[in-house]
Design a protein that fits this description.
316 residues, 10-stranded mixed β-sheet, 11 helices, binds glutathione
Length: 316
Amino acid sequence: MPHSPDLILHHYASSPFSEKIRLVLGRKKLAWKSVIVPAVLPKPDVVALTGGYRKTPFLQVGADIYCDTALICDVLEHVQPEPPLYPPHLRGCSRVFAQWADTTLFWAAMAYNLQPKGAAQFHAGQPEAAQAFMADRKAMRVNMTHLRAGDATSALRSYLRRIASMVEEHDFLFGAEPCVADFATYHPLWFTRVQVPAMAAILAVTPAVLEWMDRMTALGHGRLEKFSAAKAITVAERSDPLPAGANLLIDSAFQDDHNIPLGSPVTVTPESFGAESTEGELLAATRTHYTLKRSDERCGIVHVHFPRVGYVLRAG
Ligand SMILES: N[C@@H](CCC(=O)N[C@@H](CS)C(=O)NCC(=O)O)C(=O)O
């Protein structure tokens, strides 16, 4: 395995976005530390590190916290450029496709997956956990349109036919090798196949999709070592965050789209699904990301990074 900084992934087994990153770690043959986080609030150890962001997964490297799988993919590409997630001839379309898969495809698949039969299987034998999960996710979805089961099924069937027509042509969506689009497209369908197999008959109609999924599964998860949240917090507390320009992100030049000077108190909030904000001092606002500096009782000074796309920046 190549030498890389200590990568600590905070995730849980049944989380589809976590599976996206676990497979990227496998593709790049990286070693990583695995911290299991709760699937629902409260998440005191998570928010000690992120300052409020509660979604799963996030990546910690020392006292730098990278939120959102789109940004985590950029970080992992920086840590281990080969094999690439963004091959030069697909630089634009792989990201655009991944964004579609992480939103439109994901929500259609999850509305299909968690119909009563799928939800019953997902929460089998744990009625109290089921109620807590449903209530937590319902609160996260305020202001979002939730697809009805029939409409989600129709959309998912169409999407599967489109994906099939791509992977009938070549082994992966855009050619002989997987790119970021493959990882983003795979994880909601992995949830169907692995977490709610009672719902998986929909996949059998497009056998080319199943064969492509087998090729994705074979990439594995890299080499992981169990780690505890307490140890991860100690790592943050004992590390200094890396200065902007020296961290694992690709750019550092200031791009001011909001008329908010660096050094201002700000909040960053996901555009949709979960209204929890992170507060801090705006340390960087580049073409690609925001960095907030915050101080935490347990973690000391941490830098929390978010992608620009999909996040709302406000003067705090
Ligand atoms: N845009 C985010 C989406 C992440 C996301 O929605 N993750 C789900 C789990 S797969 C989540 O956070 N659910 C609520 C939770 O785990 O607290 C990303 O790419 O990381």
